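Entry: Glucose-1-phosphate adenylyltransferase
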Amino acid sequence: MNVFSDPRVVTRLTRDTVALVMAGGRGSRLRQLTSGRSKPAVPFGGKFRIIDFALSNCVNSGIRRIGVLTQYKSLSLLQHLQQGWSFMRGPFGEFVELLPAEQRSELSSWYAGTADAVYQNLDFIRTHQPAYVLILAGDHIYKMDYGAMLAHHVESGAEVTVGCLEVPLEEAREFGVMAIEPDTRITAFTEKPAAPQPIPGRPDVALASMGIYVFNALFLLDWLYRDAGTDNSTHDFGRDVIPAAIGAARVCAYPFRDLYEPGKQGYWRDVGTVDAFWRANLELTEVVPELNLYDDRWPIWTRFEPSPPAKFILGGADGSGVAADSLVSGGCVVAGAAVRRSVLFTRARVEPGSTIEQSLLLPDAHVGRGCRIVRAIIDEGCRVPDGLAIGVDAEADRRLFHRTDSGVTLVTREMLENLGG
C-alpha cells in the first residue's frame, strides 16, 4: 500500500508545512472593481471574498500556519482577515498572520515579484521552521486538497512541485506552460509564451501552472538567495526561479483533480477580468453548479456578519417580490421587485417595480424604484437612482459606465455620482 494514502502520514506533512498566500495583486483587468481594493478582497459568491477560497483550502487540508502577503490597497483585505480569520487557535500553533509589504532598508522597495515577496519574508519562514513551504495565489476560485499535493511532492522526491491544470491552447498565453515526463518531472517551463506548446497528442490543450508551488523549505531559502543576487532576474517564481531550478533539481508537476472524482480535473476559475468575474458568479445560479458552495465536507470559511434573513415583500403593479434561479444573501430585501438568475450579496436591496436579470448586486448595493438591470455588476455600496436602466442601451452604458465587449456593464459609486454632473 502507498504509505501516502494513510491520512496520518498526510496529516504529519500538513502540520509540517507553512503556507504563504500572495494577496498583493492589483487586478487591473477588473477595472474599477479594484480601484479601491486588491483583487483578493473582491466579493464573490454572495457572501465571500476571493481570498477565502485559498484560505479555506488551507484550513480544510490541515494547513493552519498561514502568512498572507499584502501590498496593493490592502485596507479592506486586512479588515476582512482580521475580522473573519481570527478563529485560528494561537496556543495550538494555528494562525493567519498578515505580512504587509514594507521598506526594511534604504535599498529595499515594494515587492518586485512573487519570489521577491517571499524573499522579503524569509524571517517568517525561519521563525516557524517548516519542512515544506506552500506558496499560493490568493486570487483564484477553486477547491483543492493541498495534503494530496504534499504527499505527491514527497513521494516523487521533488525539491519543487508545481500545481498544474489543462487549459485550451488559445488561453495558455496567460499562464506558465510546462512539458512533463510520464513520472511528472517537468522538463520545460515557459511563463506566458507567445506560442504555447500543446500536450503531446492533444494539439488543442496545454499544461499550465496554477501558480501553486510546494518547496522543500531549505531548498527554497537557498534558491531565493540565489535569485536575489541575480541582477537580470525579475524575481518571479514563474519567470525566473522555476525555469532555473528545472535544470539543477527535481521539479515535478501535480495535476489538479476534483476532490471527489480523482479522474476529473477540478473546478478552477481565474476571475481576473470583468467578464470572467461576472460569468463565474452567474455559474453559481445553475441548478447543479460546478462549484458546490453547499458542501459541508469542504466548507468555505469567511467573515461572519450578523445579518438578518433575506426578506421578500409583495408590492408594485404586478405584486412581485420574488427571486428565481438566484442566490440571495443574508440581509437582502426584495420589495415588490423581480430578480432572475442573479446573485444578491449581503444586504443588497431592490425597491418596488424593478427587475434584475443576470446581474450581480455586491454588498450594500441599493436599486431604486422602477429600474431595469440586465447583465450588470453593481459594485459595493452603490445607490442606483429610481427609473435608471442599465444593460439595456449599449451606447449609454459605454458613455456612463464601463461596458465590456461581451455586453457586461460595471457600475461603481463614482460613476453614479457623476450622473448628476
